[in-house]
């Protein structure tokens, strides 16, 4: 039984892929600024839009039941949800434009928009 070792080219490929991943992560973190608007989608339809500057709590009706969302100190979180596992609640506070909260059973998505974000969907989410 022969044992295959990593060649020099395998190691270079691994290092190159790791460097590209770190560079991509850094670019995303650098370009994502503070958010100013929260958008709530239910079943891919916008049902709520508000500024993060105003502290408030509001309910949203999902497919399985209600979700309570809180905006405070320019951050947003899900306070309570009718879903079973409550992953959306455990996500906690978000405040950057690349962050989202998803409640898959209720089909609710909470998305943050920053100053550079456009209101249109990208090619992946269309």
| DSSP strand tally | 7
Largest sheet: 4 strands, antiparallel
Return the CATH class of the domain at 35-114: Mainly Beta
Number of helices: 2
Q: SSE order in H/E notation?
A: HEEEEEHEE
Q: Structural class per helix/strand content?
A: alpha+beta
Low-confidence stretches: 117-126
The N- and C-terminal alpha carbons lie at a distance of 50 Å
Give the strand order of the largest sheet, numbering strands 1, 2, ... along the chain: 2-1-7-6
Percent of residues in beta strands: 35-45%
Shape: elongated
Oligomer: single chain
CATH topology of the domain at 35-114: mini-chromosome maintenance (MCM) complex, domain 2
CATH superfamily membership of the domain at 35-114: N-utilization substance G protein NusG, insert domain
Q: If classified by CATH, what would the architecture of the domain at 35-114 be?
A: Sandwich
Mean pLDDT: 84
The percentage helix is 10-25%
Instruction: Specify Rg, calculated over alpha carbons.
Output: 19 Å
Could you walk me through the main structural features you see in this protein, from its secondary elements to its overall organization?
It is built from two helices and seven strands; from the N terminus they run αβββββαββ. The protein has helices at 8-31, 87-91; strands at 35-42, 45-51, 56-61, 66-72, 75-81, 100-103, 108-114. The chain has a four-stranded antiparallel β-sheet with strand order 2-1-7-6. Strand 3 and strand 4 (66-72) form a beta hairpin. It is elongated. Mean pLDDT is 84; it is low at 117-126.
């Amino acid at each position: 039984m022969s044992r295959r070792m990593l060649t020099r080219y395998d190691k270079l490929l691994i290092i190159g892929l790791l460097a590209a991943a770190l560079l991509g992560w850094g670019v995303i973190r650098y370009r994502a600024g503070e958010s100013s608007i929260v958008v709530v989608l239910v079943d891919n339809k916008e049902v709520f839009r508000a500024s993060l500057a105003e502290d408030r709590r509001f309910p949203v009706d999902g497919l399985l039941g209600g979700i309570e969302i809180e905006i405070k100190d320019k951050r947003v979180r899900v306070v309570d949800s009718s879903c079973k596992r409550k992953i959306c609640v455990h996500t906690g506070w978000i405040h950057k434009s690349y962050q989202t909260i998803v409640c898959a059973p209720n089909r609710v998505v909470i998305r943050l928009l920053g100053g550079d974000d456009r209101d249109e969907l990208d090619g992946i989410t269309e």
